[in-house]
Specification:
The complex is a heterotrimer of chains A (296), B (250) and C (330). Chain A is an all-alpha fold and 296 residues long. Chain A contains eleven helices and two strands; from the N terminus they run H-H-H-H-E-E-H-H-H-H-H-H-H. Classes of the chains: A mainly alpha (296), B alpha/beta (250), C mainly alpha (330).
Chain lengths: 296, 250, 330
């Protein structure tokens, strides 16, 4: 009974974390969907968001919900910057070039962060009460993260489906040449998608800090890059909505398997959970590369 | 004597039947023309013969050997070679190396080394008139030169049967004549079967083919010696009729 | 003509020889030379797969890691201590076998994927293996394996010291030569032609008679085993420890990609030149601006990708085409 109580607590936490994971991956999928570029430096942008949240909170007492907006703006600016300075020149280049370039951008950001903040782990705590659900108690901060993630995902969805810009972007994803013929500024939409993708990613970094009490560090990104890959593949790699739901699945599997693997004596359940994630990744890539929710 | 035999070959994509129960015999040393508009199923037919796709129904025999489910690369070893509608050179390496790859992996696979392969390749580059360009990177060739390089690459495989894809919109008549002339000369010297595929019945076919197969909507609607096929009422109705209409509209 | 094909190999070995003599006889230069040779070998091994197939194996480091585990497991197993210096032979053998088994498995599965999907899958393999070792607590779990003591027991303190200060690096030279020989053989045999064809256009290559599945698996296997040999000596024997966090660090894959790209993919001399420049640059920046190497290298990498995607040897090869120097550059 004790296990079941713990297990259901883990699952609830998994759903909440999953929403943030989903948000974290939407940018990656958006960029892959539009530019066909896998952003291997994805996690570094999450790190940037985390440091924005940390800095704003410790310097000005700004609550994370507000710094999320700032992070979005900073992220969009970074996105435009890196698009025009780097990505624009590599659109026709082989895969290798973009993989390496985005990795180099990630390294660069991490090293800048190290030069500014040093290599130590940092953290802060935003205490705004908690919610008692019987099986487990959840800090309100995480509840806000859950709600914000859903709101942002829905907003993006509406923008994509209901606005002219969103329609044009869908055109670009489906048929680049066709869109060009129809007078759509394809390059402009590349820049915009890259910027929005990075903006979402930096913003998600703010919410990530609410789950890792002292996990803010220049090199924190790598593990999120890899988690985002798994989630993106779950959702079909090129679909931001698929990615959002993939986030929930991943959050559930991660937290749920943690509780179960913890029952095996003599192992380190945290690492085994990660290992399981990659096993899922490989099986999925093999059997259903179009994603769990994708159709052929 | 029949070299290649297709029996009731069928290929579907979703609900669309791209190739519909086609029977076809290609004889040893024959020059065959396949004619059909875009979407008539001729490219799919090529892909089925060369092994890019596998048949949903029917069978393909090469000199009596069932190759229906044989992977593409093994068919190449047995003597099937082809060119592509849009040329697919190995872009970053030289023309000479491109053609040598043909020789190394064709019917002579395992029997010759690098140097011999390069020699064979150069021989065919000479034949198609690309010898002076042998040290260029393949991507640097003009479209027509790429086309010719593919012919040389296919011939370097020392094949029994070459499938050429000449359906090239916008190619000018002079270039067509040049290619036909080269192919006819090669046919005389090599005595291999050559199948050439074009979109419209034009002088390319008339000057080249001994026999013509006409495809329409996945089906074979005519299969006869060239002049006879051109006079076939069905062909005129279905094919030339439409062609004439297109001409009028253009 | 026939002998001329192998001239670039002599150029490569000549460069190694100069480096070796310089490192051995110039005061305090052995360590930097060893670092450079490590990068050269890593680049060469990586190039055997990337350069010939165009597939990006982002999880390349997992094979270096497994190789160093293979060596560590043999050296630290008490049943082998009686072999003396010969223990290194089963060590390398075991390293190669472990990497080979993983490569055969991963190859059979992941090589069916193309492009970004393959790159992501290989990252997954690397992380999966690392977390499995840590999670299941095999081979010392996250604590790793330390072999300084068993190495001393097996070889005696004097020889063990010589291994870590000289022989481990010397073996890297040997692996670099082996990789160069393999590369030139690839370049001039049917295998290499088939691989290049599949790199340029996989579907066309199949129709032209190339058994693409078999060929890319061979290249993957060879590249992985070479990586394992490098890991076994340059990491395990040289440092006498194996920590999962170190030997599965993705940054080594990136080092390898940078070296190969900078030098020129699919060429023999590319990884040699690339490794040389990268090693010197890293070493020099480490002295000049300690702690800031990566900050400077990252923009440098981006500039190279955008401006010189063919790499130094790639550009050089174009320049010398039809000239006397041509047969020395490949």
């Amino acid at each position: 009974m004790e296990f079941l109580r713990m297990f259901s607590g883990d699952l609830i936490n998994g759903i909440i974390l999953g929403a943030v994971y989903g948000l974290m991956t939407m940018g990656l999928s958006l960029i892959f969907g539009v530019l066909k570029v896998v952003n291997v430096g994805h996690g570094a942008f999450i790190m940037v968001g985390a440091f924005i949240a940390y800095w704003m909170f410790t310097l000005f007492g700004l609550p994370p919900l507000l710094s999320a907006i700032l992070a979005l703006i900073v992220g969009i600016a970074l996105g435009f910057f890196f698009y025009y300075v780097v990505m624009k020149w590599l659109l026709e280049a082989p895969e290798l070039s973009t993989l390496l370039a985005t990795f180099a951008i990630g390294i660069f950001l991490a090293e800048v962060a190290k030069a500014v903040w040093g290599p130590d782990y940092r953290g802060y705590s935003w205490n705004v009460g908690s919610l008692n659900l019987g099986v487990t108690t959840i800090p309100m901060a995480k509840v806000y993260a859950l709600l914000s993630s859903i709101v942002i995902a829905v907003a993006l969805y509406l923008w994509f489906k209901k606005t002219r810009a969103g329609n044009a972007l869908r055109g670009v994803v489906e048929d680049k040449e066709g869109a060009r013929v129809c007078g759509i500024n394809v390059e402009g939409y590349y820049a915009l998608s890259f910027a929005i993708g990075i903006g979402l990613t930096v913003m998600s970094g703010v919410f990530i800090t609410l789950f890792v009490p002292v996990g803010i560090n220049p090199y924190m990104g790598e593990v999120y890059t890899i988690k985002a890959f798994v989630i993106a593949v779950l959702g079909g790699l090129a679909s931001p909505w698929g990615a959002f739901f993939g986030g929930f699945i991943f959050g559930l599997v991660e937290n749920g398997s943690y509780a179960i693997l913890g029952l095996i004596p003599g192992v380190e359940p945290f690492s085994l959970t990660q290992c399981l994630a990659f096993a899922i990744l490989l099986v999925l890539l093999l059997l259903k590369p179009e994603g769990l929710l994708g159709k052929k | 004597m029949s070299l290649l035999e297709l029996k009731g070959v069928t290929k579907r994509f979703g609900g669309l039947v791209a190739v519909d129960h086609v029977d076809l015999v290609i004889n040893e040393g024959e020059r065959l023309g396949i004619v059909g508009t875009n979407g008539s199923g001729k490219t799919t037919l090529y892909n089925l013969i060369s092994g890019v796709y596998t048949c949903d129904e029917g069978s393909i025999l090469l000199e009596g050997l069932d190759i229906t489910n044989m992977p593409a690369y093994k068919r190449a070893h047995l003597g099937l070679a082809r060119s592509f509608q849009i040329p697919r050179p190995f872009g970053q390496i030289t023309v000479r190396e491109n053609v040598a790859i043909g020789a190394l992996f064709g019917t002579l696979i395992g029997e010759i080394g690098e140097d011999e392969a390069l020699e064979i390749g150069e021989y065919y580059l000479e034949k198609v008139g690309l010898y002076p360009k042998r040290n260029e990177i393949a991507n640097a060739l003009t479209p027509i030169e790429k086309k010719l390089m593919e012919v040389a690459r296919a011939l370097s495989m020392k094949p029994r049967l070459v499938l050429l894809d000449e359906a090239m919109a916008g190619m000018n008549p002079k270039d067509i004549d040049r290619i036909v002339e080269i192919i006819n000369k090669i046919h005389e010297e090599e005595k291999i079967s050559i199948v050439s595929m074009v979109e419209h019945i034009m002088r390319a076919v008339v000057n080249f083919a001994e026999r013509v197969v006409v495809m329409n909507q996945g089906k074979k609607i005519a299969d006869a010696p060239t002049q006879e096929a051109l006079n076939d009422q069905k062909v005129i109705d279905v094919y030339l009729g439409r062609f004439a209409l297109e001409e009028q509209n253009a | 003509m026939n002998k001329g094909k192998y001239y670039p190999l002599f150029v490569a070995i000549g460069i190694f020889l100069v480096l070796f003599i310089f490192g051995k006889f110039a005061q305090g230069m052995w360590e930097p030379v060893a670092l450079i040779m490590f990068y050269v070998a890593v680049g060469e091994a990586f190039n055997v797969f990337l350069g010939f197939t165009g597939y990006v194996n982002f999880g390349y480091v997992v094979f270096m890691g497994l190789g160093s585990y293979g060596m560590a497991l043999v050296v630290s197993s008490s049943s082998m201590a009686g072999l003396g210096p010969w223990i290194l032979i089963p060590g390398f053998l075991f390293a190669a076998i472990m990497a080979g088994i993983l490569a055969a498995g991963v190859g059979a599965i992941a090589l069916r994927l193309r492009g970004a999907y393959f790159a992501i899958a290989t990252i997954g393999v690397n992380q999966g293996v690392k977390f499995f070792i840590e999670g299941a607590k095999i081979w010392g779990g996250s604590e790793g394996i330390i072999i300084s003591k068993p190495l001393k027991v097996a070889l005696g303190p004097h020889l063990a010291n010589a291994v870590t200060t000289f022989w481990a690096d010397f073996l890297v030279f040997m692996i670099a030569i082996l990789a160069a020989v393999i590369t030139i053989v690839f370049l001039h045999t049917r295998l290499g032609y088939g691989l290049i064809a599949l790199r340029e256009d996989e579907d066309a290559a199949r129709v032209m008679g190339v058994n693409t599945t078999k060929y890319k698996n061979i290249a993957f296997l060879v590249s992985s085993i070479l990586a394992a040999l490098v890991g076994a000596t340059a990491w395990c024997l040289k440092t006498t420890y194996v920590f999962p966090d170190d030997v599965f660090a993705l940054s080594y894959t990136v080092d390898a990609i940078v070296i190969v790209m900078m030098g020129g993919t699919g060429t023999l001399l590319g990884p040699v030149v690339g490794g040389l420049i990268y090693g010197i640059l890293k070493y020099w920046l480490g002295i000049l601006l300690p702690g800031f190497q990566l900050l400077i290298l990252a923009p440098f990498i981006i500039i190279i990708i955008i401006l010189f995607p063919e790499g130094i040897v790639g550009v050089l090869k174009k320049r010398v085409r039809g000239k006397k120097l041509e047969k020395f550059i490949a």
